[in-house]
Structure of Electron transfer flavoprotein small subunit:
Amino acid sequence: MNIVVLVKQVPGTDNVKMDPVTGVMIRSGKDTIINPLDENALAEAIAIKNSHENVKVTAVSMGPESAMKAIKEAIAMGADGGVLISGRAFAGSDTIATAKAIAAAIRKLGDVDLILCGERATDGETGQTGAMIAYYLGIPVATYVSAVEVKEGGVIVKRTVEGGFERVEIPFPVMVTVNKDINEPGFPTLKGKLKAKERAVPVYGPAELGLDPAELGLKGSPTRVVKVFSPKLSRDTIMKKADGTTGPVEEMMKFLAGKEAI
Ligand SMILES: Cc1cc2nc3c(=O)[nH]c(=O)nc-3n(C[C@H](O)[C@H](O)[C@H](O)COP(=O)(O)OP(=O)(O)OC[C@H]3O[C@@H](n4cnc5c(N)ncnc54)[C@H](O)[C@@H]3O)c2cc1C
């Protein structure tokens, strides 16, 4: 059984800044980590590998050359190998161009049964990429998954839905996007780190993926960031004095009612 886990490299901080001119996230000079929900996806893949025969786990990332660190970390945590999608042609990709490139890499790997990824990334946070990859591969997707049980020829997943859970049986190949309730991610081991150091990781560009550069990067991205701005916080303090006939609470209720706030 072949499992692909998507690992996105994200800034290791909540304080993500945007370029106000281009509308693109400023990523340089930041400490980077594997997107936390992708660590959950990876931990699930490794748990499946440890409890079933003949399971191979491949980590796939799209990003600059520095995203190799995310792949190596994934191998150190237990993945068997990885693939990095990288090159100038991919710069400025929106979720559509990203999903097309990742889908092409998965197709190139061939014979993939299960794709696991985070439900959303902490930087872009659209939560669209997993479902879009499934669309481009023409396979089913299960989102918001908090448990995966591998059965003969497919999986049974537990999905978090409004007001409860849903159990769905889906045949392979399938894309599964996971939430944080699925498991506690593990840590890299010393043996894993040594394996990661030695393991060669191929880098795919548009040519290796058979993609036309016009479909990729900014050129292939129909999403336009029209304006980026930080919301301005404005607070006014209004002092209300009771006039002797009413108390402060009544006075405040009158004030809020006047503003149609209650
Ligand atoms: C006009 C425009 C220009 C942009 N330019 C750039 C740019 O120059 N550089 C840049 O880095 N970003 C750029 N972005 C952001 C980029 O489109 C998103 O980071 C990317 O499409 C993923 O979307 P997301 O972060 O919302 O992921 P989500 O959809 O929230 O992520 C869900 C899951 O998908 C998987 N995933 C998502 N992205 C990747 C990835 N790259 N590799 C592996 N797995 C992944 C992960 O498992 C993740 O948990 C741009 C966006 C727009 C709209």
About this structure: The pocket of flavin-adenine dinucleotide is lined by residues 6-8, 24-25, 35, 37-38, 61-63, 91-95, 98, 117-118, 120-121, 123-130, 221, 223, 225 (CB under 6 Å). The radius of gyration is 23 Å.
